[in-house]
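Re: the 598-residue chain
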Amino acid sequence: MLLTLVALYLFSRDSIPIETSSLLVVAVLAIGFSLFPYPGPEGEALDPTRFFAGFGNEALIAICALMMASQGLVSTGALQPIGRVVHRVWQVSPLLAMGVVLIVTAVISAFMNNTPQVVLMIPILTAVAMRSSMSPSKLLMPMTFASQIGGMGTPIGTSLNLLVIGSAASLGVERFHMFDFIAPAALAAIPGLLFLWLVAPRLLPDKSPSFVNTSPRIFDAQLHLTDASPVVGKTLADAKKITQGGMHVLSVRRSPELVITPLPDMALRAGDQLVVRDTSERLMEYSRVLGAQLFSGDVRVDAEHPLTAPDQQTAELVLTPASPLRDRTLAQANFDWHYQLIPLAVHRPGEEESLSHETPLRDVRLGVGDVLLVQGPAEQIEALKQRSELLVLDATSNVPLTAKAPLALGIMAGIVVVASLRIAPVAIAAICGVLVMVATGCLKWRHATRALDSSMILLTVASLALSLALVTTGGAAFVAQLAATLAKLLPPVAVLSATMLFMAMMSSVISNSAAAVIGTPIAIELARQLGLAPEPFVLAVMFGVNMGYATPMADNCNLLVYSAGGYSFGDFMRVGLPLTIIMWLALTWVLPQFYPLG
């Protein structure tokens, strides 16, 4: 129980990678139970290797397979018709269009992972908002919250659903199937979606993107050294010292045929051309202190011939959970060469000061929701949209549509049908669906593996290991007994409601996956000690951990719109808290109607 508290604290610390905390928890459990064997109820010691069973857990396999299958829909552009429908309806009535967006988003989220769907909808809503002279901030947060509400409707709607259902099944609760709880989830969604449609946009302020017209352009130029230059005969390192170390030399051109790698100890000669890249002000300063002539191409830079950057555009790129830049620095990813773009700035909500002053841009370790301001040719930025590696924020909404799109939709529908008819479990149906997508060319393996989230995988394994330890050692029963003692004075509905609210609060401050897997055995044991049916308590845990609306850290989708919409922490509180209360009250009333507590 003490380790569980420590683990929850570690999971809530942004400064410690989730992977590190998760692996530490699993290692401590395995080592601890190896050194101090625990005799079970029947006298047989708990095998420490059981803590690694989470890597082969059916729920985790299903989650990973469904994330890859959802990536197939994104890669083929199978959801592009949504963008066309939104554009057409928006021309008739923006208010009506917003309602359509919320309903469609919620319905689709019930059958696919909501992260790729939110990634798809952000540029679409940004485009229609700008064309309607609206702020995207009025639309993005309601959209992502609608996706989370819709995800409550089926076992495959979110990874949290599968985790809770899988954990409950391992503890003897009858497994929930595809449409078992869609009715209470749908009824509770009605007031939530109405709030997001009619009230939430009025609570959100007009906000512009983080980097609009705030960074100077970067130019490529040449510094021609003359006989009078003070650095002739000195090393390149000496020249950099004169510029206070700020000059970045890409290469040194000694003649049309000879281009030299800019090593620090190379001696400079008159006639050398230093190929540099920087802002216009800094380039002019380098020219002055080095006594060099500044050229752009073959034209000398002066008042009549200023620096120009033909066909150069700036763009904002948001890191998604599937981005190859996640948990890497720009230097490690060799960003300039790989993407042919120049990074100008990085924005992380709430950490602007530390990022801009303490850490060099190329050494910042990037995470989900971070925004990169880049500059480069228009064709490179357009090509980046097609690669689905980073989310490009601009006024266009081009989504790649391929001939494989209908096939990808058919395969995803097949996964749903097979699982709903109970022909095969969700894990098997999803694995087969991914194989069919790869075999038919709807999905490439490099795109499929990018859809996987290492932090999610390791966090799930650690949470399942903690759950096993709590159940086996009697920790879950002990906590449930304490709760049952306090709850005996309350009616069963109040206990169910309090369980749901507590899980919602937990998911807002720590990892919702950890809250889901650890809270499930405690809720089941609480129901049994009170003589109540465990099924509604399992659903209360599942619905509660899905209500991560009040903080941007509660869900990856929240982080994405946090940056894309330019929101503040207070914006999430302003909309998320009322929505949490609405969904909590609605589910408290609806859930017992479909799942009696007695």
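Residues 210-214, 395-399 have pLDDT under 50 and may be disordered.
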